[in-house]
């Protein structure tokens, strides 16, 4: 079991990052790979979880230990697999998921791909009162973003949006949902990570 991997960010895809550690490239699935876009070529620490089944061997990675702990809590819930847990964590605000569980807010939880009423209820039954160790010590203001002033939307921004839509599709959102969402995103953000965060906020509303 790998606790974490320290290495250089070599590649970023819609579903994973590649971390070079002593000449070995580790393909690591992450909730939102594009949070590492500003760190490409730099050395980072990514907290990992190795998932083993008869037909799969996958390595999942997270920015923080709290995010990794939340992932482990989620996949322990009946009806939630690694892909479902990743879609929930891609929202980028674990504290809101925790609050929804503590407040028994099934409506909020069913906004995530693959989470129906039965699974939302199971999340509450299994996790309520058991997530105190997952809450970060310092929680930023929710839904607060600083956008660049007078940022020109050009072909580079369009590529960022396309990458964001690919990442959202990989999380399980349908083509119809993404087509409806795309016009709302254009002109709003300028990086793939920001597009994903903005899109997830709109999808969860």
Automatic annotation (TrEMBL):
Q: Which GO terms describe its cellular component?
A: cytoplasm; Holliday junction helicase complex; Holliday junction resolvase complex
What the protein does comes down to: The RuvA-RuvB-RuvC complex processes Holliday junction (HJ) DNA during genetic recombination and DNA repair, while the RuvA-RuvB complex plays an important role in the rescue of blocked DNA replication forks via replication fork reversal (RFR). RuvA specifically binds to HJ cruciform DNA, conferring on it an open structure. The RuvB hexamer acts as an ATP-dependent pump, pulling dsDNA into and through the RuvAB complex. HJ branch migration allows RuvC to scan DNA until it finds its consensus sequence, where it cleaves and resolves the cruciform DNA.
Q: What is known of its domains?
A: Has three domains with a flexible linker between the domains II and III and assumes an 'L' shape. Domain III is highly mobile and contacts RuvB.
InterPro entries named in the record:
DNA_helicase_Holl-junc_RuvA_I (IPR013849), Hlx-hairpin-Hlx_DNA-bd_motif (IPR003583), NA-bd_OB-fold (IPR012340), RuvA (IPR000085), RuvA_2-like (IPR010994), RuvA_C (IPR011114), RuvA_C_sf (IPR036267)
- Keywords annotated in UniProt: ATP-binding, Cytoplasm, DNA damage, DNA recombination, DNA repair, DNA-binding, Helicase, Hydrolase, Nucleotide-binding
Major localization class: cytoplasm
Entry keyword Heme: no
Q: Which residues belong to any copy of the Helix-hairpin-helix DNA-binding motif class domain?
A: 72-91, 107-126
Q: Which GO terms describe its molecular function?
A: ATP binding; four-way junction DNA binding; four-way junction helicase activity; hydrolase activity
- Which intervals of the chain form a coiled coil? none
Assembly mode: Homotetramer. Forms an RuvA(8)-RuvB(12)-Holliday junction (HJ) complex. HJ DNA is sandwiched between 2 RuvA tetramers; dsDNA enters through RuvA and exits via RuvB. An RuvB hexamer assembles on each DNA strand where it exits the tetramer. Each RuvB hexamer is contacted by two RuvA subunits (via domain III) on 2 adjacent RuvB subunits; this complex drives branch migration. In the full resolvosome a probable DNA-RuvA(4)-RuvB(12)-RuvC(2) complex forms which resolves the HJ.
Q: NCBIfam families in the record, alphabetically?
A: ruvA (TIGR00084)
Which region ranges are annotated with the description Domain III? 156-205
How is this protein named in the record? Holliday junction branch migration complex subunit RuvA
Q: Where in the cell is it found?
A: Cytoplasm
Q: Which GO terms describe its biological process?
A: DNA recombination; DNA repair
Which family does the similarity line name?
A: Belongs to the RuvA family.
What gene name is listed for this protein?
ruvA
């Amino acid at each position: 079991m790998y606790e974490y991997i320290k290495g250089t960010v070599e590649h970023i895809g819609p579903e994973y990052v590649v971390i070079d550690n002593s000449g070995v490239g580790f393909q690591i699935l992450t909730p939102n790979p594009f949070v590492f876009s500003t760190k490409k070529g730099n050395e980072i620490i990514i907290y990992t979880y190795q998932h083993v089944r008869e037909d799969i061997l996958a390595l999942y990675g997270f920015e923080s230990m709290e995010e990794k702990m939340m992932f482990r809590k989620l996949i322990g819930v009946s009806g939630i697999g690694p892909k479902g847990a990743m879609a929930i964590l891609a929202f980028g605000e674990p504290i809101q998921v925790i609050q929804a569980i503590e407040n028994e807010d099934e409506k909020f939880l069913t906004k995530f791909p693959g989470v129906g009423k039965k699974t939302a209820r199971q999340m509450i039954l299994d996790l309520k009162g058991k997530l105190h160790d997952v809450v970060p010590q310092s929680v930023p203001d929710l839904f607060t973003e600083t956008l660049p002033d007078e940022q020109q939307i050009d072909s580079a921004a369009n590529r960022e949006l396309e990458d964001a839509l690919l990442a959202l599709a990989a999380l399980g959102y349908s083509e119809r949902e993404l087509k409806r969402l795309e016009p709302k995103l254009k002109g709003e953000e300028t990086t793939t990570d920001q597009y994903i965060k903005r899109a997830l906020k709109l999808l969860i509303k």
